[in-house]
């Protein structure tokens, strides 16, 4: 593995003389990237396969923990170690996976839903749209369904209660996404303690040429709470399994951004490394399977996105990767050629995100907050009827009937078949005393949707009051 790491550095110089190739298995990644081999293996405990794959622009697969035998492999941290593999061709990645996982033949199962982890993409140094739009468009084209946005901090906060013991790591003001930071701290603690258990006696007796800082860190007094870390692992696996079930996919950035430059300050930055490890800790601590998929380049450097499936969902993830890969690369090409419309696409994605936040606020009965989010969506993309109709619903709750009427009119101008817009405008006009116009709106809603009970009840009510 040392030979492969050195080889990785030398080979990478052919393309990026000033960039690092990744982690401990970077030699394998670069050998694949350089066309020397069709596939190669690597060890991934806390990112040793995923990061080199991302930095070298190749497919990298970390299987579910313990599904591929580690027999004959020198352990790093047994609770985290996995045997991963690299390939440029998704068919090769798929075939290698089936051999290593010893999978029998079975039909391909399509994914039910894709979750984009918005908070994870906030950590990325690459614009989120550049990464998520490719996945979103590919999912829509292949499976005909929208992705959903999720905030992992919020989802996991009530599901991994044992993380409280690892939440004291806010250094240098680094308090963004504290739960992911605590998960990262737990992973580092477990990794360090298990490595010490396996190798510290040998290091002390042989005294190999190891960086003094590493030896010093390993020699620090105090043992980690292994039982606590294992509890975190169990809860993390249960939480992600509950979210993804058998046919869900979680989408996150593989790395923070482009490969760092050689000797760059961020390589020794605790904050930078902590943010990178937060992304990696999700699969490492839950034991879920993860694949890093290249998405072309940014600033002439490889970038990627990762898909995560539940623990044991390796076949499903391999099948999904093979199914999506060609379409993803097509979308990368389309995005690269659409620089003129990139701002519009970015605004459209931001508008959708704002709408989702507005919907969440509306469900929580935070009407003014919902109005603000819908307004933001309209400013970003004023051609979507739903944004106006949704804001009208919030205005109705605030008894702002004129604003609600105006928004519904705008929605109807954009989409003349919007039943909700007619219903809401009818409600607003009824409250404003425009009874004839309100009846007209409710009648129009019935023309579009003859069995609509809300419209029928409203018409009967108004006819009784004003025959």
Features:
467 residues, 19 helices, TPR-like_helical_dom_sf, 10% strand, Amidase domain-containing protein, alpha+beta, 57% helix, elongated, single chain, Serine Threonine Protein Phosphatase 5, Tetratricopeptide repeat, signal, 2 domains, TPR repeat, Amidase signature (AS) enzymes, 8-stranded mixed sheet, disordered N terminus
Task: Present the secondary structure layout.
Layout: H1 2-12, H2 26-33, E1 39-44, H3 50-56, E2 59-62, E3 82-87, H4 90-101, E4 113-117, H5 118-123, H6 128-143, E5 148-150, H7 152-157, H8 178-206, H9 212-218, H10 226-244, E6 248-253, H11 270-286, E7 289-298, E8 301-309, H12 314-337, H13 342-363, H14 367-380, H15 385-397, H16 401-414, H17 419-432, H18 435-448, H19 453-465
Parallel strand pairs: 4-5, 4-6
Antiparallel strand pairs: 1-3, 2-3, 2-7, 6-8, 7-8
Domain Amidase: 15-89
Signal peptide: 1-17
TPR repeats: 351-384, 419-452
Give a summary of the structure in a few sentences.
This protein has helices spanning about 1-10, 25-35, 50-55, 90-100, 120-125, 130-145, 150-155, 180-205, 210-220, 225-245, 270-285, 315-335, 340-365, 365-380, 385-395, 400-415, 420-430, 435-450, 455-465, and strands at about 40-45, 60, 80-85, 115, 150, 250-255, 290-300, 300-310. With about 475 residues, the chain is of the alpha+beta class.
Provide a count of the helices.
Answer: 19
CATH class of the largest domain: Alpha Beta
Main pleated-sheet profile:
8 strands, mixed
Domains (count): 2
**How many β-strand runs?**
8
In whole angstroms, the N-to-C terminal distance is 87 Å
Beta content:
5-15%
């Amino acid at each position: 593995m040392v030979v492969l790491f050195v080889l990785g550095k030398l080979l990478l110089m052919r393309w990026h003389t000033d960039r690092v190739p990744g982690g401990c298995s970077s030699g394998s990644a670069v050998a694949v990237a350089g066309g020397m081999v069709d596939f190669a293996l690597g060890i991934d405990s806390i990112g040793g396969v995923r990061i080199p794959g991302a930095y070298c622009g190749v497919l990298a697969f970390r299987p579910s923990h313990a599904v591929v035998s580690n027999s004959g492999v020198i352990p790093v941290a047994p609770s985290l170690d996995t045997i991963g593999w690299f390939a440029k061709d998704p068919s090769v990645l798929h075939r290698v996976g089936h051999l290593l996982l010893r999978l029998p033949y079975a039909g391909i199962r399509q994914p039910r839903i894709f979750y984009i982890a918005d908070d994870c993409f906030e950590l990325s140094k690459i614009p989120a749209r550049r990464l998520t739009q490719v996945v979103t468009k590919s999912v829509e084209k292949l499976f005909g369904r929208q992705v959903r946005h999720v905030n992992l901090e919020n989802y996991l906060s009530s599901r991994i209660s044992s993380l409280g013991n690892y939440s004291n790591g806010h250094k240098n003001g680094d308090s963004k996404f504290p739960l992911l930071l605590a998960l990262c701290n737990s992973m580092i603690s477990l990794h360090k303690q298990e490595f010490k258990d396996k190798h510290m006696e040998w290091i002390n007796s042989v005294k190999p040429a190891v960086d003094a800082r590493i030896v010093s860190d390993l020699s620090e007094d105090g043992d980690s709470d292994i039982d606590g870390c294992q509890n975190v692992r169990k809860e993390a696996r249960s939480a992600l399994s509950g979210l993804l079930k058998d046919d869900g996919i979680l989408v996150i950035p593989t790395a923070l951004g482009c490969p760092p430059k050689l000797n760059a300050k961020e390589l020794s930055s605790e904050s930078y490394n902590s943010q990178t490890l937060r992304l990696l800790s999700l699969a490492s601590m839950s034991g879920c399977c993860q694949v890093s998929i290249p998405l072309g380049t940014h600033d002439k450097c490889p970038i990627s996105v990762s898909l995560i499936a539940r623990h044991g969902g390796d076949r499903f993830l391999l099948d999904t990767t093979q199914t999506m890969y060609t379409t993803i690369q097509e979308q990368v090409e389309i995005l690269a050629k659409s620089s003129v419309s990139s701002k519009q696409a970015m605004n459209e994605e931001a508008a959708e995100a704002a709408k989702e936040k507005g919907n969440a606020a509306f469900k929580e009965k935070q009407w003014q907050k919902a109005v603000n989010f819908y307004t933001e969506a309209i400013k970003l993309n004023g051609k979507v009827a739903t944004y106006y109709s949704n804001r009208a619903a919030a205005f109705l709750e605030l008894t702002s009937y004129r604003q609600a009427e105006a928004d519904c009119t705008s929605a109807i101008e954009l989409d003349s078949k919007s039943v909700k817009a007619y219903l809401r405008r009818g409600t607003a006009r009824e409250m404003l005393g425009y009874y004839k116009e309100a009846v007209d709106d409710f009648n129009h809603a019935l023309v579009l949707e003859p069995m609509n009970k809300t419209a029928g009840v409203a018409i009967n009510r108004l006819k009784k009051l004003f025959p």
